[in-house]
Amino acid sequence: MSSTIVATENLTKRYGTRTVVENLDLRVPAGSVYGFLGPNGAGKSTTMKMLLSLIRPTAGEVRIMGEPMTRRTRRTLLPAIGSLIEAPPGYAHLTGAENMHLVRRMLDLDHRQVDEAVRAVRLQDQMGKRVRDFSLGMKQRLGIAMALARRPRLLILDEPTNGLDPAGIEEMRRLLRRLAEDGTTVMVSSHLLGEIDRTATVLGILSGGRMIFQGSRSELMAASTPDVLIACSDPRGAVSALAPFGARLAEEGELVLPGPDDRRTAEAVAALVGAGVGVHGVRRSEQTLEDVFMSLTEGDGL
């Protein structure tokens, strides 16, 4: 990994007796698209709000670009961070251009910075429309343009593809990759596993407020052992012979062994041969990112 732009140590948030985020050690490499995955209620939004100093942690520390995020330092750090949390910002009765003009004045930016941000999200031909007439995808892009206008080193986005149609999701995916290529580190939360799989360079998976995985896609795929499929001469007899292995019969007539390692697989094959069952083929099932996620979170659905 390259240098780290976001790091947390034992980050924890409790509300009374309820723990929402627990002992979170987060590492976001500079220049990456960091996919922050987890079921609804896993603590993703709470974590992002703590990173932005919108919520005070119960315990632990947040460091942004090597500096602790505190009430004293937030004024220095926040200008280098853009964010889109929850609903897209903007005044519905104003045009896109008028909204961006307000942002320019509030942040004391020059016109070039605003123009660059609008072009980055490819909204330059729609800025004369009132925001109330924008599609949800256009509102999301306007919110990102507002976040980008200050030329942040870090962009934090909470579920930016919520409510978007497939074309809008594809457009958002291209935008995030392009921003990272141009040097902006992007941290994006989502429950859309397929989109994160196709966009992120680093993944973090949160479940029940705890980080259960952090690393590359290849490391994630290696973190879960896929099922083994066995083609044999007597599948029904094989299920009985391999009952201690938890074997079951698949619809295709193959035998399924749930997540055995290589040694356990060899023992199962030996048991079949010993029972007089002919073994025709042994292979591991193919896994998607969603399969691995469900395995790691023990079926805690999205």
How would you explain this protein's 3D organization?
With 302 residues, the protein is α/β, with parallel strands linked by helices. The chain has 2 domains: 4-222, 3-Layer(aba) Sandwich (Rossmann fold); 228-286. It contains 11 helices and 15 strands. The protein has helices spanning 44-51, 74-77, 96-107, 111-120, 136-148, 166-181, 193-199, 217-222, 235-241, 262-274, 289-296, and strands spanning 4-15, 18-24, 27-29, 33-37, 59-64, 67-68, 81-84, 154-158, 185-190, 202-207, 210-215, 228-232, 248-249, 255-257, 279-284. The strands form 3 sheets. Strands 7-8-9-4-10-11 form a 6-stranded mixed β-sheet, sandwiched between helices. Strands 1, 2, 3, 5 and 6 form a 5-stranded antiparallel β-sheet that branches. It has a 4-stranded antiparallel β-sheet with strand order 13-14-12-15, with helices on one face. A hairpin with a 5-residue loop joins strand 13 and strand 14 (255-257). Helix 4 (111-120) packs across helix 5. The radius of gyration is 24 Å and the shape is elongated. The model has no long low-confidence stretch (mean pLDDT 88).
